[in-house]
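The instructor's notes for this session suggest beginning with a concrete chain rather than abstract definitions. Hand out the sequence below and ask the class to guess, before any prediction is shown, which regions might be ordered.
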Amino acid sequence: MTTPREAHIIPVSPHYFRAYVENPDRDRPSGYKGMDKKKLEAFKKRLEDRQRELRETVNRTAQDGREADRESAQDIADRAAQSYNKEFLFHQSNNERQLLQMVDGALSRIHEGSFGQCISCGEEINPKRLEAVPWTRHCIVCQEKLERGLLEHTGV
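After discussion, reveal the predicted structure:
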């Protein structure tokens, strides 16, 4: 019979377990060396600027949605246009919130020291990919697997 505590134990290969026991402070694969401080600070600034922009946009979109709720349209065409506008604002706001979560996650990874490392395989993310999409969580190989449904989608 499995106790509640044992239900949360994840089986690990003996090789991985031995490597972990020999170096318990190891939190990254040996292939990932991290990023130099200058580059990391540049990414941090870009991400913080993007975070600020997104928060402002999310707040402005929410305000626009509240104002759209206050408007009372009598004509059926006006009500349809108002409904469309509210739906558009909702989707826009949802997309911006998701992007904000990804930016927040990238800033957390900077703080944790794992920024630039794929969250799935642990390999270094191509620097050109990070330049283009600094909030990315996956290397290109794992991203392609994710998009084909061959990799389990993890949270932000």
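Then share the key points. Residues 6-147 form a domain with the Four Helix Bundle (Hemerythrin (Met), subunit A) fold (CATH 1.20.120.910). Residues 1-30 have pLDDT under 50 and may be disordered.
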